[in-house]
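User: Quick sanity check before I run a bigger batch. Here is a single chain. Can you write out its predicted 3D structure?
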Amino acid sequence: MTNATTWYAIEFKNWVKQCGSKPSAEMLQSIHDLGLRPGKQAIACAMGLRPEGVTNSQIALVCGNPQLNRMRGLIDDRLVKRLPASRDERNHTVYKLQLTEKGMARIASAQKRAAENEVAGGVEPAIAAKRAASGAKPVKGKATKAKPAKATRKPAKAAGELSGPALAIDDNGNTVAISPSVELLPANVLIENETDGFDNPPVAETE
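Assistant: Done. Predicted structure follows.
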């Protein structure tokens, strides 16, 4: 979290003794967390949180002119309350403020949001830096699941194709295996035999 005093470098540089003590970073941050932007109204309210409080003339020395509008608004909203305080040695009215329970609850809520935003803002750059270091391309949009590859079917075997060695009968009537590369004759082709050249048995001729 940024130190709240960094917003008031000019005011602190020109600070004079008559203004009393400088408001702490915690006092300034509390006023910011109550909803006031860094500026004259905020530092005037923070000066009211000091143990000695603040006078209108002190506010004018720091801010150039009175700044009581937002202080009254914080009191009306019951975020701070005005404590009884005696007038100073110059008989000026002293505005002494104290945070209420409602104000402290709002400050706690604002600090919680700031912490969450700081964590979220730090995680994304860290992831981007890690991806850049690894050479990975940034991811755009939602990741899509890869579709499973379809199983490839084996080509159907052609008619008459054998998966193993073919069998045949040799001249001596023995069963033998032949190479699959040997072309087999279709089943409808007749094989010649030793009798008449056909599968059919010989028929006796008649006169």
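Strands lie at 54-55, 80-83, 94-99, 166-169, 175-178.

User: Great, the batch can go ahead then.
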